[in-house]
Amino acid sequence: MLAKIYSYCRSIFAVIMVISLGQVNVNAIEWPQEVAEKEGTIVVYQPQPESLSGNILQGRAAMSLELIDRDEPIFGAFWFSARIDTNADNATVRDVKVTQVRWPESTATDEQRFTEVVEKALGSSSFNISMERLSASLANAKQEKQSLENIKNDAPNIIFRQQLSVLLSFDGSPQFREIENSPYERALNTPFAVARNKLTKKLYLSSGTFWYTADNPMGPWQVTEYPPEDLVNMIPKSDDAMLVKSSAAPAVIAVKTATELVATDGKPRWKSLTAGKLLYVSNTETAWIREVASGDMYLLLSGRWFQAKKEAGPWAFIRADKLPTSFNDIPPESDIGGLRVSVAGTTEAEQAMLDAQIPQTAAIKRSEAKLTVEYDGEPKFDAIPGTKVAYAVNTATQVLKINGQYYAVDNAVWFVASAAKGPWKVADNVPTGEIAKIPPSSPVYNTTYVEIYDSTPEIVYVGYTPGYMWSYPYYGVPVYGTGWYYPPYWGRYYYPRPPTWGLHVGYNPWTGWNVGVSWSNGFFRVGVGWNAGWGNHHYPSRCCGGYYGGGYRRPVVINTGDINIGNSVSIGNRTNISNRVAKNNLSGNRVGENNLYNHPENRIRNADPKRANDNIRQATHNKSRTNNVFADKNGNIARDNNGQWQSRSKGSWTPAPETKQRVEAGLNNRDTSKPITMPSRPNTDMSRPTNINRQINNHNFDREGLNRSRSARQHGVAREGRRGR
User: Fold this and answer.
1) 33-37 and 40-44 as β-strands: parallel, antiparallel, unpaired?
2) Comparing 657 with 566, which gets the higher pLDDT?
3) Closest C-alpha to 339, from 266, 280, 267
4) Per-residue DSSP letters for 696-718?
5) Judging by DSSP bridges, how do beta strands 56-67 and 690-691 pair with one another?
6) Tens digit of pLDDT for each residue in 359-380?
7) pLDDT, greater one: 88 or 476
8) Which of 95, 415, 544, 628 could form a disulfide with 424 if both were Cys (CB 3.0 to 4.6 A apart)?
9) How far from 150 is each of 154, 474, 513, 634, CA to CA, in Å?
């Protein structure tokens, strides 16, 4: 087990370059895509989603049917329900159920034939779409944008220092355990490498570059040039390429309660922004802003904003949708452009909210998914108030007891057993009603964000959203952690719980959640290796790894030696972050690294999506086709002709009617004596699609909606193109 923990801890702080800063994907997924049938070819234009619930995508798409016995294509629109499988880059749309069809140019005689061809072809086909395009297109979809209830937003203790400093954070009072065959003990409840001489009680701390000594774990800590040689040999060596390029050792500030540190390189240097409406401190890596008009100061910590008149406080939480309007005017290219993602209503924040709607999914092979749960003694369970759920406290695995059954989550896969110690097998279903009642005040709250979608005798389809990684939407922005303090479990081992505070956690639109400041990286790296190399220190599963984790992406810490807010990986603008990544030669990220299911240790249990859907054929793209055809919400077909909308009428494209005009296209061959009312929502009977091709003159040409769809499609293509910049 220690080997597994050690491997995890080493990898979790590996500095990686995320997909969004990698090279452009030369195999970009293009639209439209087509499926060949014996009757002809069905061309499907990029879907326009209307809702996403779990892995069920509902929406509509424009299409054309090119029959072998007709010279001209027949254009139409269809509504669908489908499942999506995702990885870091792309989503596969499969199990397409056509719920409604509209054929503006067909006769009543032809409509049944056309619909049968389309239903058969799409039901046995899958389509690929990039995550950038899917996320952007969801801007027009109906999403459940619920803010996390019962989240805790009390301000932590906030310390200001006018020198480079690091926070030595203990999870409660410092606790030490003996290191076998040595004269030392080590501190268990901190992410840093702290050792104590058993005889003299002298304490030592290492960053890999600097050594410190103290008589009390709470300090004061002082730099020493003469650490014990035997202890130096025990500490993991740091990679020289990752060392802080600074000649001065940062100060060490020890705390044992929820605390955040704001350190500046000397006195705060304020700079003006947005025509003098805002000031920000430039010589720090924390977002520290002042609104000139009111004099109020603002700090951004773990995705939350706190407001005060002065450094001494009191600091009070303020929602991201209640910030001064001048925050929305922060230029993206400015030194603090990256924090726009934490300002509700900005493009960056809205995109982050859309990204959070899309689950990461996998097909899990029952035969390869294994789980062994180790307890510190006999299993112990604590009841969760207000639920029928109890959770195991003395194990690194998240185990729930519900109505006499046991359920465990391991790397976003549910397992089930009839006994607390197993044997465990992949679960087909879990009591979601009871699990959903788990409140944020519980350390197993994140399990409510792991789902089971479907199963076969060989495969179980699963997925998770960012809540499993402790990232939550809150009034229009992502925040990290629930804000609740989860006490650790002490037995023979120490089991830490995920914290919200103390790690300088920040978010940007390109790398996700990141931990630490540039000059603290060595402390974290050495501490992880130190804690992983000895017994008595167990981390929970990768989802919530005690002190570590966050979002879909591993923490990213980039050391520059240039302390400036614009260089902060959590705040700086895209160009600066990209340049810093390139400067540090961090170009080796593998595609799919951000998805838990794709981590090396988990891949053995993943089914090949193609083999898992052997009866599904993959739609293809014809480069000669242009992705410029849309379906509006009423099923009208429109083409974007260099920014001008055209509608399909009598076999040709003509200028589209204005919004208030009725669409009269293709009515000459229709029997309108028996009106058919268009349903307000997709047909829920999946057995047969509904044809809605009559009396369409009752519906307006939705120019406004088409404009939004076009904008979203263009935005998705632009995000796809920026992936490598």
Assistant:
1) antiparallel
2) 657
3) 280
4) GGGSB--HHHHHHHHHHHHHHHH
5) unpaired
6) 888 999 999 999 999 999 999 9
7) 476
8) 415
9) 12, 11, 22, 40
